[in-house]
Design goal:
By secondary structure, this protein is an alpha+beta fold. It has helices spanning 3-24, 120-137; strands spanning 30-34, 38-43, 46-51, 55-62, 68-74, 79-85, 89-95, 101-107, 112-115. The relative contact order is 0.16.
Amino acid sequence: MNSKQKNLTLIILILVLVLFYVFTGGSVGISLDFGENELTISASDYDWVIPYDEIESLELTDLPELGTVIDGINNRTLCCGTWENETFGEYTLCADPRIETCIVIRMKSGGVYVLNYENSDSTKQLHQMFTDLLRSKS
């Protein structure tokens, strides 16, 4: 391979990587770990631990107007971190904004977490499973 071919191959590779990043938003998705006593939500460089006994309520609803990111990530496929909107005030968000359904977790302390997972159907199933899990813990 001559130097022109190597340069062209390198340029194509860089272009493919840039396009991948643009179309995926650079996100790696949302990971949920249901432990014995707590839920751990992970996305990108963020992790939140939610003890089951500190949850006041779970609600399945349409994804609200997200509002403004205070500290976190805001791209096409992942919005996470600390946000503020008219519905919740300051809250923690971990959601794919393309998914219309979300779970709102209200904490006894007054905090609010909003999340969704994979797609609307998976989010609905997750809500049911999480509700059943919390019932079994009480």
